[in-house]
Amino acid sequence: MISLLHTADWQIGRIFSQFDEDDAAALFEARFKVIERLAAIAHERRADAVLVAGDVFDTQTVSDKTIRRMFIAMQGFSGPWLLLPGNHDAALSESVWSRAQRLGVIPSNVVCCLTPTPHTVAGKFTLLPAPLTQRHTHQDLTHWFAQAASPAELPRIGLAHGCVQGILADNIDSTNPIAAGRAAQAGLDYLALGDWHGTRQIDERTWYAGTPETDRFRDNDSGQALWVTLTEAGALPQVDVLRTGSYLWQQTPRTLAVPSDIDELVAELQAIDSHDVRELRTAGTCDLSGHRQLDAAVKDAQARARALIWDSSALRLEPTEADLRALHADGFVGEALQGLRTQQHGDDAELAREALLILARVLDAHSSTSTATTTGARS
Fold it and tell me: How far is CA 287 from CA 254, 350, 362, in A?
């Protein structure tokens, strides 16, 4: 029996520029930490090899320090690591792989599969890799698997990075194609794929592992790796999904219409913790009192979450008469508030909304100062 840990799309060196600097740094670091977890899993479960199905690095231009750190993160497993170039880190004549070789940091137990050449791994299986040698190709680089000779007693394992044809919408002509049914056609016992960032089974012998640490707002079952066992050549693989990611990425679109909508959203924000990476987009309408409540809840959640983006540009403020009385907004100021409220329906809606918030904050501060002064004078 052989046991394999199948992973892909590490995207080491990815920059998360949409987040604040400290959050982006933590998400950058998480990609090294998940490799350490993968190494620990492979060591504890005594894997025969770890298969990494492409996009090990996010770009060809990652720093030398990042290259070194990645290989250091792999040290927890001393067995074979089989790394495949994908579209982000294709095996060009000058690439991140050639730099790693010049740096002399590739351990002896790591095989960088830079050419389509069969490998016999630890005498237990034959690996057929299909490395990308350019970012995009319209040829199926796995076509040679069927003609590749291998010992009959050893399982045949394919390793590729690309898009299995027929799983996307019919009108999408994807690059780096892989023929549907390649595993059966080439006599593979298992075909380990990368490129799709979520875990996905294609057929009984073909799987996408997905990225081991979620890296985008898409509900595609990511943050996992696959534990694959084969009893013998020709047997169907047993595939178990392992949770490996630290962070839960979610988009939360909410349309607010009544006060209870705000209460529900506040409760949801209060449940956010340090494992959450959240993008919250609000639309609809709310009054100033509700906006204050929501703003306070968002600020608290941002302090607890790993990262929280709040986009309220589509949220229209509708001050109530109670809001206006609380702000002491009468006369010209009251008219200005009403005018800004109306302008939120026009071409400058976002500008009017921001002006309305600024004016409300100024009036809030003035009201608080006046109250404090009056209280002090009475004392």
Answer: 16, 16, 17
Q: How far apart are CA 53 and CA 156, in angstroms?
A: 15
At residue 45, the 3 state secondary structure works out as coil
Is the alpha carbon torsion for 40, 43, 47, 52 positive or negative?
positive
Q: pLDDT category, 251, cuts 50, 70, 90?
A: very high
Query: For tokens 């940091």, what's the residue?
Result: 105
Taking the C-alpha atoms of residue 296 and residue 294, their distance in angstroms, rounded to an integer, is 5
- Nearest Cα residue to 276 out of 226, 217, 221: 217
What global pTM score does this model have? Answer: 0.86
Quote the Cα angle for 274-276-282, to 5°.
125
Q: What one-letter code names the amino acid at 321?
A: E
Q: Cβ-count burial of 125 within 10 angstroms (0-12 exposed, 13-18 middle, 19+ buried)?
A: buried
Q: Is 230 helix (H, G, I), strand (E, B) or coil?
A: strand
- What pLDDT digit, counting tens, does each position of 2-45 carry? 999 999 999 999 999 999 999 999 999 999 999 999 999 999 99
Contact 100, 64 (CB under 8 A): no
* Alpha-carbon separation of residue 100 from 27, 65, 96, 237, 291 (angstroms): 23, 10, 6, 33, 52
